[in-house]
C-alpha cells in the first residue's frame, strides 16, 4: 500500500489525481481505528460500511472523469451531536440512544458534497456539557498521547480521533471551549469560527446563542480548508450570517509582518506556570516573525465564567426540554404523563446535564430572572464591549487555550467548579460571538502539549489564521 | 392583559347588572393565519388532513432543527395590526416554556414584551371603542385526543393520540383591553373582528374549525371601585357561547361576592352543554413559563416602506364598507341588509349595480336576497340587475314578478330583465285596470269587503286573492292594497 499522507489537503490532492484511491485512504484509517479504538474510545459509532460505499462512489466518479470536491476521499469524524441521516445520533446520552435522524445537518451535507468520507460519530460529554468527555453515558474517551489522561471536552472524541490518526480532520462543536480545549489537550489544531459563520442546522443544541461548529486538524491549513467548506450562509439557520464562505487557506502562510497582537495585561490567573511560559514564548515568536505586541485590557473577563454558567444552562434547560419521551428517544412509562416525563428524564440524563438543567431553570424562574439571567446578559454585553475596545488597537489577541495540560481521569470529575474553570480562557469569545483557535505550541508539565489561543474580532478568521499559521511555523521550527 | 385599577369606561345604566354590579371583560382572540406554510417551516398549513402528514423536523421539534420565520405570516400579522390601528414595531420572539405532549419542543415560540403590533383599538358598529393592547405572532400547538376516561381530558384517559399537523401553524393573538362592559359588546367585538380578518384575507376566522378561538377574562365590580379579581374562561367555541359564558361567569362571581365569598383568580372551562363554567386550574397551579428571548431567531424590524406597502394594499374594512352602503341606500349601518352584504363582501357588487344605473335600495335588497351563495363577486353582470331594479321602481313589474325575473337571471348567470319579463307575459297593468278589478272583486265578495271595512285586516286576503287570480299575478300587490285602502276611506 502506498504511503498515506497525514493531511486532508494532501489526501484530497492524491485522490483527485488518482495517485491514491479514496478506498485505500479509508482502509488505512479504518485499520488504525481497528488497532487503537478499543484503548481510545474516540467513537460512539464507526460507520465503516457507509464510509466504504462513499469512498467507492468517489473513486467511481474519478474513474469516470467526473469532477470531485475539495475534500475528495478525506476521512472525517463527526461529533455525535450533529444529525446524520439514518445514522444513530446520540449526543452520548441514554435519552437519545438509538435515535436515527431523518435528516443531515447542513455541515454534514456540505462535507459530503465536498467529497469527505465520514468514518464515524465521535464521543462527547453528554449534550456537550463538560471539559473531559468523562460525562459521556457511553464511557470516557482517552487521550491518545497518554491514555491515563482525559482528552478534554466536550469534543474529546473528535480531538482524540485526529490525535490518534483515525481521521486527518474532524468536526466538533464549541459552546464554551469544547473544540479549543480538547484540541489543546490532545496537541491538535481546533477552530471555533465566528458565531453564525457555520450553520447550526442539525447540531443538537446545548446553548443556542453560543454553540458553533468547527474543525479539528493536524495543521492550521487543514483547519482553514475545512472551515471554508462548512462556512457560508444557510437559509435553514436564521442566525447564519448572510454571506458566502470566506477564503482562508491562503491566509495561513501569509505571515504576521505588521500585525498587531494583543497581550491581555489583566488576564485572570490560574494557568500552570509551564502554560504561561509557552504563552510568553508565543509572543516572542510572533514578534520575531514581524508582529508588534500590544498590551490590551479586558476588565470584564473575570465575570465571563459566571455569566456563561447562567446563560448556557438557561438556554440548555429550554433546549433539552424536548427530550420528554413523547416523540423519540427513551421513554420510561409511568402512571401518567407527568410521571412519565419525570421517569424518562431521570433515567435518560446524566448528573451534569441534570445539574445544568436545574441551574438554568432556576436562573429563568419568575423572581430570579433579572438577578441571574438578566444580569448575565449585561455582563455578556460588557465583555463584547471590552473586546471591541481592544480590537481598536490590535488585530488579534493571544492567550492560553486551557490553564492546564491534560489531567488524569477522575481528577476533576467530582468537583464541578474546578472542571468549569478549565474553560476560563475559552468562554469569553463564545459570549462575544468571536472566532478563536487553538494551535499546539510546545509542551508543558509531563511533556504534554500546550495550546495557544488566537482570538480575533467577528469575521476576523483571516487574521486569526495568519497568526495561527505563524505560530505553527514557529512551533515546528522550535521543536 | 393589563388591568388599570380604575376604568374610564363605565356601563350605561341599562348595561349595569342587578345590584349595581358592572362586568369588566377583556378578550384574547387567537386566529390562525391563512398562510400556505407554517410559521417556522415549509410544511403546509392546512386544516382537515390525515393526522401527522404536514410535519417535518422543525414541526416535530427534532433535535437540531431550527425555526425560520415565514415572511408572509409577518405580513398578514401586520395587516391585522394596521386594521386594528396598532403601532407596528421592531419586535423579537420569546420562548414560553411548558411541558405538554402536543407541544413538540416543550416551549412555544411566541412574543412577550416586544410584540409586533401594539396599542390599537377597534370601533364597533354600535360606536363603542374597544382598546387593543397587542396583536402578536406565535405558533400553534399540535392537537391531542385523549382516549378513555370520562372527561375527554388528559387526566384519567387511557392513552392520548397526537396530531402535529397543527403544530407550528401561525397564530396571531389579539389581546383587548378590559374595555368590554356587556356580553353583547363582547359578541359584537368578536363578530366585527371576524369580519375584519376575513376582509383583509388574514384568516378564515372560523370558530367552529378552531381557526379563531376566544378566551374571556371576566371580573365584576361596582363602578368607581377597583376592578375585581378576574377569571379566564376557556373553551368558548362560538360567538353565542361567548355571550352565555360571560353572562354566566359574571352572575357566578356576583353570587359568590353577595354571599360573602371572594373570587379566586383562576382559569375556568366553559361547558356549553351544561351552560356553566368550572375550575380548570387555580393561580397557584399556574405554570412559570420562564420566558426568555428565543436565541434561534433574530429581531424583526419591519421597514417603514414595508409597513406602508402593506397599508396601501389593505382593502376597505367592514366599517368603511358599511358606511359606503349607508351613503348609497340610506339604510342604517347596523341594518341586517347592510351587515349581511358587508359580511359576504358584496358591497362592491351592490355599488356596481348602482353605478350601472340601478336603484340603490332595490340593488341592496336584491343582492342580499338572491346571492347568498355567490361569494363576494356574483357572476351576474351588474347591469342586468340594475335594469331589473329600474323596471320594478317604475312599476313596470310587480315585486312578485321582479322576484321571478331575478331568480331566472341568477340561474342563467345574467339576462335582459325586460326580455325575460316579456317572455313570461309579465306586463305592468295600468292603475285604472287594477281599479276596475278591485271594484269587480268587491262586488263578487261583499261579505269579505264588509269585514275589511269593519277593520278586520285579514279579510283583505280574500279580495286580493281574487284580484291576483283575475290578473294572473300581474297586478302589483302594493297598488292593489293602496286602492283598497282608498276605497275603504
From TrEMBL, chain A:
GO MF, any single term: ATP binding
Entry-linked SUPFAM superfamilies: Amidase signature (AS) enzymes
InterPro entries: Amidase, Amidase_CS, Amidase_dom, AS_sf, GatA
Domain Amidase intervals: 24-463
GO cellular component, one term: mitochondrion
Annotated keywords: ATP-binding, Ligase, Nucleotide-binding, Protein biosynthesis
Pfam family, one: Amidase
Enzyme Commission identifier(s): 6.3.5.7
The reaction(s) this protein catalyses: L-glutamyl-tRNA(Gln) + L-glutamine + ATP + H2O = L-glutaminyl-tRNA(Gln) + L-glutamate + ADP + phosphate + H(+)
GO biological process: translation
UniProt xrefs under PANTHER family: GLUTAMYL-TRNA(GLN) AMIDOTRANSFERASE SUBUNIT A, TRANSAMIDASE
Family that this chain belongs to: Belongs to the amidase family. GatA subfamily.
NCBIfam families: gatA
Name of the featured protein: glutaminyl-tRNA synthase (glutamine-hydrolyzing)
Species, as recorded: freshwater metagenome
Lineage per the UniProt record: unclassified sequences, metagenomes, ecological metagenomes
From TrEMBL, chain B:
PROSITE patterns named among the record's database cross-references: GATB
Database matches in InterPro entries: Asn/Gln-tRNA_amidoTrfase_suB/E, Asn/Gln-tRNA_Trfase_suB/E_cat, Asn/Gln_amidotransferase, Asn/Gln_tRNA_amidoTrase-B-like, GatB, GatB_Yqey_C_2, Gln-tRNA_amidoTrfase_suB_CS, Gln_synth/guanido_kin_cat_dom
Domain Asn/Gln amidotransferase: 348-488
SUPFAM superfamilies per UniProt: GatB/YqeY motif, Glutamine synthetase/guanido kinase
Alphabetical GO biological process terms: glutaminyl-tRNAGln biosynthesis via transamidation; translation
Keyword ATP-binding appears in the UniProt entry: yes
Keyword Nucleotide-binding: yes
Keywords: ATP-binding, Ligase, Nucleotide-binding, Protein biosynthesis
Gene Ontology MF, one: ATP binding
Pfam families xref list: GatB_N (PF02934), GatB_Yqey (PF02637)
N-terminal signal peptide: none
Reaction equations catalysed: L-glutamyl-tRNA(Gln) + L-glutamine + ATP + H2O = L-glutaminyl-tRNA(Gln) + L-glutamate + ADP + phosphate + H(+)
Stored PANTHER family: GLUTAMYL-TRNA GLN AMIDOTRANSFERASE SUBUNIT B MITOCHONDRIAL AND PROKARYOTIC PET112-RELATED, GLUTAMYL-TRNA(GLN) AMIDOTRANSFERASE SUBUNIT B, MITOCHONDRIAL
Family stated for the protein in its record: Belongs to the GatB/GatE family. GatB subfamily.
Name used for this protein in its record: Unannotated protein
Naturally occurring in which organism (per UniProt): freshwater metagenome
Amino acid at each position: 500500500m502506498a504511503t498515506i499522507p497525514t493531511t486532508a489537503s494532501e489526501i484530497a490532492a492524491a485522490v483527485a489525481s488518482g495517485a491514491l484511491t479514496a478506498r485505500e485512504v479509508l482502509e488505512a484509517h479504518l485499520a488504525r481505528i481497528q488497532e487503537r479504538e478499543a484503548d481510545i474510545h474516540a467513537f460512539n459509532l464507526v460507520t465503516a460500511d457507509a464510509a466504504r460505499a462513499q469512498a467507492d462512489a468517489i473513486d467511481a466518479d474519478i474513474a469516470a472523469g467526473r469532477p470531485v470536491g475539495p475534500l475528495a476521499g478525506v476521512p472525517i469524524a463527526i461529533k455525535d451531536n450533529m444529525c446524520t441521516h439514518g445514522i444513530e445520533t446520540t449526543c452520548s446520552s441514554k435519552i437519545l440512544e438509538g435515535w436515527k435522524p431523518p435528516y443531515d445537518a447542513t455541515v454534514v451535507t456540505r462535507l459530503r458534497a465536498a467529497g469527505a468520507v465520514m468514518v464515524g460519530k465521535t464521543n462527547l460529554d453528554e449534550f456537550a456539557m463538560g471539559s473531559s468527555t468523562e460525562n459521556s453515558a457511553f464511557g470516557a474517551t482517552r487521550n491518545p498521547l497518554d491514555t491515563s489522561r482525559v482528552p478534554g471536552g466536550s469534543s474529546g472524541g473528535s480531538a482524540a480521533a485526529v490525535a490518534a490518526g483515525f481521521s486527518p480532520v474532524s468536526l466538533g462543536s464549541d459552546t464554551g471551549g469544547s473544540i479549543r480545549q480538547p484540541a489543546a489537550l490532545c496537541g491538535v489544531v481546533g477552530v471555533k469560527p465566528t458565531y453564525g459563520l457555520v450553520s447550526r442546522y442539525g447540531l443538537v443544541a446545548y446553548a443556542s446563542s453560543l454553540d458553533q461548529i468547527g474543525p479539528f486538524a493536524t495543521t492550521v491549513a487543514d483547519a482553514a480548508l475545512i472551515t471554508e467548506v462548512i462556512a457560508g450562509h444557510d437559509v435553514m439557520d436564521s442566525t447564519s450570517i448572510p454571506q458566502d464562505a470566506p477564503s482562508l487557506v491562503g491566509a495561513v502562510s501569509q505571515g504576521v509582518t505588521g500585525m498587531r497582537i494583543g497581550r491581555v495585561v489583566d488576564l485572570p490567573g490560574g494557568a500552570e506556570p509551564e502554560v504561561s511560559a509557552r504563552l510568553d514564548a508565543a509572543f516572542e515568536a510572533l514578534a520575531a516573525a514581524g508582529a508588534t505586541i500590544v498590551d490590551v485590557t479586558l476588565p470584564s473577563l473575570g465575570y465571563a465564567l459566571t455569566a456563561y454558567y447562567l446563560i448556557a444552562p438557561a438556554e440548555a434547560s429550554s433546549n433539552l426540554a424536548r427530550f420528554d419521551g413523547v416523540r423519540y428517544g427513551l421513554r420510561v412509562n409511568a402512571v401518567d404523563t407527568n410521571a412519565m416525563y419525570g421517569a424518562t428524564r431521570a433515567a435518560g440524563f446524566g448528573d451534569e446535564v441534570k445539574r445544568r438543567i436545574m441551574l438554568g431553570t432556576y436562573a429563568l424562574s419568575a423572581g430570579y430572572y433579572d438577578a441571574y439571567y438578566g444580569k448575565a446578559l449585561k455582563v455578556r454585553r460588557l465583555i463584547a464591549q471590552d473586546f471591541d475596545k481592544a480590537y481598536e488597537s490590535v488585530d488579534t489577541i493571544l492567550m492560553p487555550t486551557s490553564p492546564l495540560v491534560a489531567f488524569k481521569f477522575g481528577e476533576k470529575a467530582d468537583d464541578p467548579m474546578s472542571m468549569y474553570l478549565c474553560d476560563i480562557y475559552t468562554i469569553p469569545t463564545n459570549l462575544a460571538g468571536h472566532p478563536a483557535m487553538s494551535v499546539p505550541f510546545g509542551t508543558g508539565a509531563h511533556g504534554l502539549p500546550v495550546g495557544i489561543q488566537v482570538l480575533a474580532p467577528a469575521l476576523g478568521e483571516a487574521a486569526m489564521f495568519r497568526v495561527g499559521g505563524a505560530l505553527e511555523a514557529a512551533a515546528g521550527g522550535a521543536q | 392583559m393589563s388591568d388599570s385599577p380604575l376604568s374610564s369606561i363605565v356601563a350605561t345604566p341599562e348595561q349595569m347588572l342587578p345590584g349595581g354590579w358592572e362586568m369588566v371583560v377583556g378578550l384574547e382572540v387567537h386566529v390562525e393565519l391563512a398562510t400556505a406554510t407554517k410559521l417556522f417551516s415549509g410544511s403546509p398549513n392546512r386544516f382537515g388532513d390525515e393526522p401527522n402528514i404536514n410535519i417535518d423536523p422543525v414541526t416535530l421539534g427534532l433535535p437540531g432543527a431550527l425555526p425560520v420565520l415565514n415572511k408572509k405570516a409577518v405580513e398578514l400579522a401586520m395587516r391585522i395590526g394596521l386594521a386594528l390601528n396598532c403601532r407596528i414595531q421592531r419586535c423579537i420572539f420569546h420562548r414560553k416554556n411548558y411541558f405538554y405532549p402536543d407541544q413538540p419542543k416543550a416551549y412555544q415560540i411566541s412574543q412577550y414584551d416586544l410584540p409586533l403590533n401594539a396599542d390599537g383599538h377597534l370601533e364597533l358598529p354600535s360606536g363603542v371603542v374597544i382598546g387593543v393592547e397587542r396583536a402578536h405572532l406565535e405558533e400553534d400547538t399540535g392537537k391531542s385526543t385523549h382516549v378513555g376516561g370520562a372527561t375527554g381530558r388528559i387526566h384519567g384517559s387511557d392513552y392520548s393520540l397526537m396530531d402535529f399537523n397543527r403544530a407550528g401553524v401561525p397564530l396571531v393573538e389579539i389581546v383587548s383591553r378590559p374595555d368590554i362592559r356587556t356580553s353583547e359588546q363582547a359578541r359584537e367585538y368578536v363578530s366585527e373582528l371576524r369580519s375584519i380578518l376575513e376582509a383583509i384575507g388574514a384568516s378564515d376566522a372560523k370558530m367552529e374549525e378552531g381557526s379563531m378561538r376566544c378566551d374571556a377574562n371576566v371580573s365584576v365590580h361596582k363602578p368607581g371601585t377597583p376592578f375585581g379579581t378576574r377569571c379566564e374562561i376557556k373553551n368558548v367555541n362560538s360567538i353565542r357561547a361567548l355571550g352565555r359564558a360571560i353572562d354566566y361567569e359574571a352572575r357566578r362571581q356576583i353570587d359568590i361576592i353577595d354571599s360573602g365569598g371572594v373570587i379566586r383568580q383562576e382559569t375556568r372551562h366553559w361547558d356549553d352543554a351544561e351552560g356553566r363554567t368550572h375550575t380548570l386550574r387555580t393561580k397557584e397551579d399556574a405554570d412559570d413559563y420562564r420566558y426568555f428571548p428565543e436565541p434561534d431567531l433574530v429581531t424583526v424590524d419591519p421597514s417603514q416602506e414595508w409597513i406602508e406597502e402593506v397599508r396601501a394594499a389593505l382593502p376597505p374594512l367592514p366599517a368603511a364598507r358599511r358606511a359606503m352602503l349607508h351613503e348609497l341606500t340610506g339604510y342604517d349601518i347596523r341594518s341586517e341588509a347592510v351587515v349581511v352584504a358587508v359580511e359576504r363582501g358584496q358591497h362592491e357588487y351592490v355599488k356596481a349595480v348602482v353605478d350601472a344605473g340601478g336603484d340603490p335600495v332595490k340593488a341592496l335588497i336584491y343582492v342580499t336576497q338572491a346571492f347568498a351563495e355567490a361569494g363576494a363577486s356574483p357572476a351576474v353582470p351588474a347591469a342586468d340587475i340594475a335594469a331589473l331594479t329600474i323596471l320594478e321602481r317604475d312599476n313596470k313589474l310587480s315585486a312578485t314578478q321582479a322576484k321571478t325575473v331575478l331568480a331566472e337571471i341568477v340561474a342563467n348567470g345574467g339576462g335582459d330583465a325586460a326580455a325575460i319579463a316579456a317572455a313570461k307575459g309579465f306586463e305592468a297593468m295600468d292603475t285604472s285596470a287594477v281599479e276596475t278589478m278591485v271594484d269587480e272583486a268587491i262586488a263578487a265578495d261583499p261579505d269579505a269587503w264588509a269585514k275589511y271595512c269593519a277593520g278586520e285586516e285579514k279579510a283583505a286576503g280574500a279580495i286580493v286573492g281574487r284580484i291576483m287570480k283575475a290578473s294572473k299575478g300581474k297586478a302589483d300587490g302594493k297598488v292593489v292594497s293602496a286602492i283598497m285602502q282608498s276605497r275603504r276611506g
